[in-house]
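Reviewers of the previous submission asked for a worked example of the structure-prediction workflow described in the proposal, so we include one complete record here. The input consisted solely of the amino acid sequence. No template or homolog information was supplied to the procedure at any stage.
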Amino acid sequence: MTSRSVPEYRVTLPKELVADLAWQAAGLPEWRLGNDGMLSPGTAARYHGVLAGMPRLAEFTTTCHQLLSAPEGGGFAVLELAGLLDAADSEEAGLRAVTALLSLIATPLRAFDRWPLWQPLSTNLAIDPMHIDVVNSTLPPDYIAQLCVRPEPRGHSLISQVRRAVGRLGYADAELLTHPRYVDGSLFELTGVGEEWQPFPILDGLPPSEGFVRFTTTMLADADPADPYVKAARALERELIVGQRRFLLGRGDLLIANQHLCCHGHEALGGGQEDVPEDERRLLLQIFLRGQLRHAATPEVVA
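From that input alone, the workflow returned the following structure tokens.
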């Protein structure tokens, strides 16, 4: 699926699949969501019916699952979809085709009630530090996906494998992270992500397939630097920085990150962005994904 001349996390759609999917894109139904915020089973079934039998589709989905979930994978992938967007009859049809592809990997989820299924990310001229999304819930989204509609040539995306970063911590720091001592904002008008969890632990004690490393730099913004729990979180932040990978997203690149395994973020955009009109700055569309139907539950944590 990928060439040796490109990074292993990049996946290019086979030309045969692009042609078939672009031809069928206009006939894909608009997405409908259930009361749980997820793509309705009926819409998913229609998407899968259209995609069934397309050339090299099984190879594509296997590659994605290996990159995102297999122990030897990195926990993330970048799908190169510019050719599909260009071949589709309209931007709307192209986005439906991307949604249909994602539904083969996991179930699209609209977590924020006030946003559409694909949420435009506001332009942050400063750095967007490493984090997982909806960190303060009992059931954060399993995956995030960000589609680059309009690139910025100097604002790198960041990914760091958070489980490996935890593994490099000393025992004392790792133990402190199991205590529910961390707070980050509040939940408001969200669906499908469980209940608000405040304060929460960074390490919830669950295996990677079920639990999360609930980390976001914003929870440390006003924290006492002498607090041992803050020091432990800063130690994890340093390990995340050491292990982070930087890459640019071009138009049509779709970043998918497994939130059980990875944190993500963005570097500051290039200089002079204050003078660039908003509609010419980098534009990313984000969608959440639920990997499997699970019941939200607060694990046993150290008080």
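The radius of gyration is 19 Å. We consider this example representative of the routine output the project will generate in years two and three.
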